[in-house]
Amino acid sequence: MTTPPDFSVGQVLTASQMNAVGLWLITPTVTSVGGTAATVSGGVVSIGSGNTSVTITAFSADFDNYLMTLHGVLAASANPGLYVQFGAATTSYYSVTPYYAYDASGDGAVKRNNGSELVAGFVGANHFASNTYIFAPHDTQRTAVTGNYAGDLYNGTFSGMLANNTSYTNVKLSLPSNSFVAGKVRIYGIRD
């Protein structure tokens, strides 16, 4: 038998083989505000043109930790911060988001100290991609995040936490005073 994920057509898989698969693509539900409605197909969330926010419901007791990937995410105008919130929480966010300009014209950092959201990078009008590890969103403990991003003018990292012990089922992505043009989001459960 080949090592997963190199399966062959018609192959019968055992429980131990399936349990060895590390990432599971979640098929979430999605709601969006503004513009064309965001959709889900095959587990992939497609952000609608003109969306000002997209809420993805994907967290459950099935997994402790998750990986969220974004690619092809575009903003109507260049480089607004990508805001991340969990559930209805609008306080107790702590984060640091260093950013580095490709031309060295404006390096810096955005920090949240008991803020209303985390900042997970700066979305360009032509390109944005990121990966975000989300730790324990559904558990009744602090939710933590860490990740990397690359946009039109800036790239960098981000990390932070939501300082409460609440269980969450969803994550909300939004742009301040801006809207999305397009983008794809995938959320994977990470097997323990």
Mean pLDDT: 93
The CATH class is identified as Mainly Beta
Give the termini distance in whole angstroms: 24 Å
Structural class comes to: mainly beta
Q: Helix-strand pattern, N to C?
A: HEEEEEEEEEEEEEEE
- Count of runs of 4 or more consecutive helical residues: 1
User: Which spans have pLDDT < 50 for at least 5 consecutive residues?
Assistant: none
Q: Which key terms come to mind for this protein?
A:
globular; 10-stranded antiparallel beta sheet; Jelly Rolls; mainly beta; 192 residues
Secondary structure blueprint with pairings:
Layout lengths: L14 H5 L3 E3 L3 E5 L5 E3 L2 E3 L6 E5 L7 E11 L5 E6 L6 E9 L6 E8 L2 E5 L5 E8 L7 E9 L2 E9 L7 E5 L5 E11 L2
Antiparallel strand pairs: 1-15, 2-5, 3-4, 4-15, 5-14, 6-11, 6-15, 7-10, 7-14, 8-9, 8-13, 11-12, 12-13
